[in-house]
From TrEMBL:
PROSITE patterns: RADICAL_SAM. The keyword Lyase applies. SUPFAM superfamilies: Radical SAM enzymes. GO terms for molecular function: 4 iron, 4 sulfur cluster binding; lyase activity; metal ion binding. NCBIfam families: AmmeMemoSam_rS (TIGR04337). Pfam families: Radical_SAM (PF04055). Keywords: 4Fe-4S, Iron, Iron-sulfur, Lyase, Metal-binding, Pyruvate, S-adenosyl-L-methionine. This is Pyruvate formate lyase activating enzyme. PANTHER family: PYRUVATE FORMATE-LYASE 1-ACTIVATING ENZYME, PYRUVATE FORMATE-LYASE-ACTIVATING ENZYME.
């Protein structure tokens, strides 16, 4: 049976899910600062960071959730959302616990805000995950539900194991991460969906307790300095980040700094966590945002979390409807196996390998046998 933590230093006296990390620096006052994200938690012995899964043990920062998960599921790749990456294929998806942001509108707060890592019932080592994904016909593994930034050592090892097995790896993240940690997290990733939560520093500070600039840096890094296929999601929250001006600013920045071929998804908010007093996003808001983005010159703009065939269709620059979707279901597919428009032959940006998958919209929870805890 494969070991749980094949390549990470174990921590003396700690459980099998705790590994040493390279992301800490000693301060003059005796504390150790975690250097994974700009939160820069400064910890004394035994303290945990804001994300709760990274902690101080002795003279280092450790990750306490290596190999643990809130559960494994097979999802459609469109659910990440990724519309230009192996369309129609199943992806083995999982998250752990904790998050390094503190969004008042969190849509996954039961996982991301969980402080009960002892109740993370599922466990799997990287090789075991990759082998399971392959056996079940998945084309990729996704780190999702909570942000892989906080469990980057585990995500990074799983991504390497996926590649080794001939699969791809996907990160779904808020992009709030420092450069060194970012480099390790994305070294073996093939695709990412980055949440761009709004487009003002004021929104990021007040509602997500983070900074917009860091996320923009991550986007520029991914698009210009790596081969990671990148799509962007903005959850539109009525009255908070959905003004015409803010949406126009975001789209203009994407067009200028990332290019007009980077797909952008506008998704619908539902009242949750500390924002239960805000109404759900009306479909008309998503359609308005999409129009603004198209006017700004972005070529691939989608609506999400609603039924909207027009807003979920990939259209070629020649006007041909190439991939017609209804939520996560593909109803028409007119892209060649190597990613070209079936009508004019233009290349569709993204990762297209062979025919579309036929996984459909279903979500299938799976169980993986507990690993060896050597
Ligand atoms: S990763 Fe966690 S512990 Fe490290 S700085 Fe960010 S929130 Fe703090």
């Amino acid at each position: 049976m494969a070991a749980l933590t094949p390549s990470r230093p174990r921590v003396e006296g700690a459980d099998a899910f705790t590994v040493g990390t390279a992301y800490g620096r000693a301060l003059d006052d005796g504390r150790i600062e975690c250097t994974v994200c700009p939160r820069a938690c400064r910890l004394r012995e035994g303290q945990r960071g804001l994300c709760f899964v990274r902690a101080r043990e002795g003279d280092q920062i450790v990750l306490t959730s290596y190999g643990r998960s809130s559960g494994f599921c097979i999802d459609p790749i469109e659910k990440k959302p990724l519309n230009h990456f192996l369309p129609g294929t199943p992806v083995l998806s999982f998250g752990t616990a904790g998050c390094n942001l503190a969004c008042r509108f969190c849509q996954n707060w039961d996982i991301s805000k969980s402080r009960e890592i002892d109740t993370l019932a599922a466990q799997a080592g990287p090789d075991q995950l990759a082998a399971t994904a392959k056996r079940l016909g998945c084309k990729s593994i996704a780190f999702t539900y909570n942000d892989p930034t906080v469990f980057l050592e585990y995500a990074s090892d799983c991504a390497a194991a996926a590649r080794e097995a001939g699969l791809k790896a996907v990160a779904v993240s808020a992009g709030y991460i420092n450069p060194a940690a970012r480099q390790e997290l994305y070294a073996n990733m093939d695709a990412a969906n980055i949440d761009l939560k709004g487009f003002t520093e004021a929104f990021y500070e007040k509602v997500a307790f983070a900074s917009l600039r860091t996320v923009l840096d991550t986007l520029e890094y991914l698009v210009h300095e790596t081969g990671v296929w990148t799509e962007i999601t903005t959850l539109l929250i009525p009255g908070h980040n959905d003004s015409d001006a803010e949406i126009a600013d975001e789209c203009a920045w994407i067009a200028e700094h990332l290019g007009d071929g980077v797909p952008l998804h506008f998704t619908a908010f539902h009242p949750d966590f500390k924002m239960r007093d805000v109404p759900p996003t009306p479909p008309a808001t998503l359609r308005r945002a999409r129009s603004i983005a198209l006017e700004a010159g972005l070529k691939y703009v989608y609506t999400g979390n609603v039924h909207d065939r027009v807003g979920q269709t990939t259209t070629c620059t020649c006007g041909e409807a190439l991939i017609v979707r209804d939520w996560y279901r593909i109803d028409r597919y007119a892209v060649s196996d190597s990613g070209q428009c079936g009508s004019c032959g233009a290349r569709v940006p993204g990762v297209f390998e062979g025919p579309a998958g036929d996984w459909g919209p279903k979500r299938q929870p799976i169980r993986i046998a507990a690993p060896s805890l050597r």
